[in-house]
Amino acid sequence: MTTKRIVVISSGLSTPSSTRQLADRLAADADGILRERGFDVEVRTYELRDLAHDITNHLLMGFAPPKLEEVLDAVSKADGLIAVTPIFTTSYAGLFKSFIDVVDTQALTDLPVLIGATGGTPRHSLAIDYAIRPLFTYLHAIPVTTGVYAATSDWGDGGDGVRSLPDRIFRGAKEFADLVERTDRSELVNDPFALDRPAGHLIGGLTGE
To answer: For residue 120, is it within any domain?
Structure first.
């Protein structure tokens, strides 16, 4: 049975957070769809708030501490990425962008990405298309057509004639599953000049232990 590896990134700052809740719902639907199609699915979920100091250290020092290295490695080997961020001042969270900045520029090439975002008001739903989608497109990822935005009011009954949040989650997850099903990243080309240890290990005798 073929295993599909899905990495879920949540950049919510509170605990619990609606950002993590949306991430879990997207992952659960994608997992269910792929399993119905006969795939084994491995889902790894990471809270960026737990890696904030490591991300900052990577930006300052140029190498990833072990916990962050694990996440970066998982992203590079994934068959699909679910990325969810809160919207602050009409765009993605700074923590979310900082994480993307430390991801290898080649790691997202041809990687299906399901974008999710949360915010207090529906007015910021367009941030997915004018801010987040171009970011992943620039990095040669493949964002699915449907991005899922959840405002505070969306966690209710989904009335007033607007497509309900569960419907939008399922639609996005299905489009994502369609791409993941066709994705084969098992033969990623390794850079023959890449270091088998972070560059920081060459500076000052760092051992990473």
So the answer is: yes
Distance between CA atoms of 34 and 19, rounded to whole angstroms?
Answer: 23
Domain that holds residue 31: 3-202
With beta carbons less than 8 A apart as the criterion, state whether 56 and 91 touch.
no
**Is 9 a member of any domain?**
yes
Note whether 59 and 99 are within 8 A (CB): no
119-143 burial, b at 16+ Cβ within 10 Å, e below that, comes to: beeeebbebbeebbbebbeebebbb
Please state, in angstroms and rounded to a whole number, the distance separating the CA atoms of residues 64 and 104: 11
Strand partners, 85: 117
The CATH number of whichever domain residue 35 belongs to comes to: 3.40.50.360
Residue with tokens 């959840």: 150
Looking at residue 187, its pLDDT comes to 62
Evaluate whether residue 134 is within a structural domain: yes
Residues of the chain under the 70 pLDDT cut = 157-163, 186-209
Residue 166 in any domain: the answer is yes
What's the full length of the chain, in residues? Answer: 209
How many independent structural domains does the chain possess? Answer: 1
Predicted structure pTM score = 0.86
Our separate counts of H helices and E strands in the chain read 7, 7
Other CB atoms within 10 A of residue 180 CB:
27
Neighbours of 51 (CB within 10 A): 25
What are the tokens at 186? 């098992």
